[in-house]
Every structure is written in structure tokens, then in C-alpha cells.
């Protein structure tokens, strides 16, 4: 029998924001903004239930971008006026961060009250934040020190989320897949070894209640070629239960990422491209999944889009309708793979 806690129909967490929500968030009225966010999240839950998703998220609706769960709720980090090469507004660490209370646990509680479907929370990984916010001479003495402070905050939030009934938590580190290349990309201010050590601090739980999965999304696109040793090191040194991997282009590198995955770990295959409105052919997707099945038991797998649909609130990758069509396709693919076993 399939593992009922693999949450087969998944998505990365961020969804296309409604126009009314964007307007309310820029209007400057805190009460209007809070009401608009709650309405939008309620509508997003209805959407996800209708699409038969096995998890629900708040769509990142209360945040400016996928990093906001941490950046907007800790002291010691400052937003700048510059935009980095990744298109994200740059934040810098002026001191070791301190949490100003729960990061997203309150929103997770609202999700749990709206539906019996398992609430999912996505957080930026501490290694990613440290690698992109550290500036020598400004505050923390090293990126590793900054990363460890962030890991402590995120680890505490994960424990709080689990205690409040959240069963799927995803950490996003868009830099890691580039570092698995045979010619590794820059990891920002953190070395590869330090990045693994920092993210391991956040994901390590002494106990996993039944049905809890801690997942890591190491990037949105596979490198041209994978260094197998580095991939195996990633999977073994960061104690995640689930790896959310891009699997939408049909490349050898995508398959290599699955081959390197230890047998006892779950995989979520990002089988549809979240950046283009054209729908994938089901036969093409199933052929790719069949190829992965030669190396990985598909009973330990799930499917999702390749990345979030709007990791930046004001810069959605698709329209709301195209997003819906992509999520419907993910649900259809799940039924081809597992029937009604979710």
C-alpha cells in the first residue's frame, strides 16, 4: 500500500496573488491589508481543495516574496534599495538576527482551521539567507555565524509548526543545485560545506511525529551535468525526509539527481514547468516518471510543479488561470501514478 504521508499532489507554496490583495498591501492601511490577506488565503484554500491537493498553503499571500517569512519577522536584517542579479531586493545583515515572535505559525494555524487537508509551510533555508545577506564588516563576523543564528530561529519555528499540527515543511535554498554541477556555481558568501552544515542545523529534529515530512527544495533548475559525489553529500549531510527536485525538462542531469537519492528518502518530482503556460503532454511526463522508477520506488514519490508560481508577489510567472491548469495537470498525473491512493 502506498505511504499515505507522501502528500502526492504538492506545490512549492507560492501562488499568484489576486489583484485586490496587491492593491491592499500597497494602500498603507494595516486593517485593510490584514482583511485582504485573510480573504485571499481563504479563497486559496478553496482553490487547493477543489484541485484535490493533498496539502494546502497560504500561497505566500501575506509576504512580499518567498524569503519574507523570515526577513520580515526578525531584527538585525535590513532591506536595501538595490536589486540583486536574481531579481530580488537585497537585504543585508547588520547584526545577528533575533526572531520577533513566531514567523508563520499563526498563519499555519489559520490554515488548519479552514480545512482538514494537511497544512504545508515553506521557509527560506538559513544557508540561503546567510549566503545572500552577509556583508563583510557590516555585522556578523562570518557568513557561517550568521547562518547558524538563522538556523536556530528556523529550527525553533519548525518545532513550533510541528507542535501546531503542520505536517509538511519545505526549506527553499535556490543556490544548492548550482553547487552540484561538475563546474560548481557560486554559493554566495557560504562555502558548500558550510551551507550543508547550516541547513542541517535547521532540519534536524530529534523526533518525527507520524506523517511529518521535512523537505528541501535545493533549486529550480538542474545543472547541465551533476557531480554525483556532491549530490550524495547533499542528501546525506542535510537530514531531510523529502527532496523536491526539478523534473520538467527531461534532461539526464534531472535523472541523475534522482539516481543519487538514498533509497530511504522521499522525492517530490517537479514534473510541470511553472514558468510557461503550455501544458506538458501526459505521455511525456509519464515516460519521465517511468525512467525515474527504474532507480527510485515511485511509492516513495510525489509530484508538483517545478517551482513556485509567484516567488515574488508582484512578479508572477503565469496568470492565475494558467496556474490553475498546471495544478490540474499535476493532479491528473498523480492519478495516473497512484490512482486514488492519496
Structure notes:
By secondary structure, the protein is α/β, with parallel strands linked by helices. It is 39% helix and 17% strand. It is built from 11 helices and 9 strands. It has helices at 19-27, 30-50, 68-71, 105-114, 126-133, 143-163, 192-203, 228-237, 252-259, 282-293, 320-338; strands spanning 55-56, 74-83, 89-99, 118-124, 168-172, 213-217, 242-246, 266-272, 301-305. The strands form 2 sheets. It has a 7-stranded parallel β-sheet with strand order 1-4-5-6-7-8-9. A two-stranded antiparallel sheet has the order 2-3. Strand 2 and strand 3 form a beta hairpin. The termini are close together. The relative contact order is 0.15. The mean pLDDT is 93.
